[in-house]
Amino acid sequence: MKVLVIEDDRQAAAYLVKGLGESGYVVDHAAEGRDGLFMATSGTYDAMIVDRMLPGMDGLSLIAALRAAEIRTPVLILSALGAVDDRVKGLRAGGDDYLVKPFAFTELLARLEALLRRGGAQATTTKLRVADLEMDLLARTVRRGAQAIDLLPREFTLLEYLMRHADQVVTRTMLLENVWDYHFDPQTNVIDVHISRLRQKIDKGFARPLLHTIRGAGYSLRGAA
Asked: Strand, coil or helix: what is 165?
């Protein structure tokens, strides 16, 4: 799942991006209100985390602009302002939840998951299936047939991307940008290592392999025989 973090505090933003990435989310970041609004309106996100006090455009104005543009992506507001009136203003501006700073990351993660569950019917697909391989995006579980498959967070994100692009050729550049958030090739074998581990987990012991290497092009998760 893809999350947009709009936070101007460099340390807080790095903390959020790192923690969400380790939890299996693909994360984009904007440090300024107008940049965040542009990214929110030009990209597809499953949820957004928006700081209330932002340079350029404050968080509440940003959220109000999104709602005026009929963008219904769930928004979790972060703010040091914790009075009842402040929380009410945030929710009335179009926020879906309000978390006061400082906060525990585990609570933020739980609130984010709750927003995704509530918005699942209208905002995002909650289950992916390719042949007999099924991924539950909210429970963060994977099964192939009757067998549960245990994946690390990065493996889960990699498989999610492959499943969303099933029967298509996915290039190394696509994986670097969308799974690792690299906009350059670091010239390492990180993709090959993760693809190899993923193949062992989802294909080993099954009659038909799903994950294929397309020589000179990339990889493809194929549901059809």
From this structure: coil
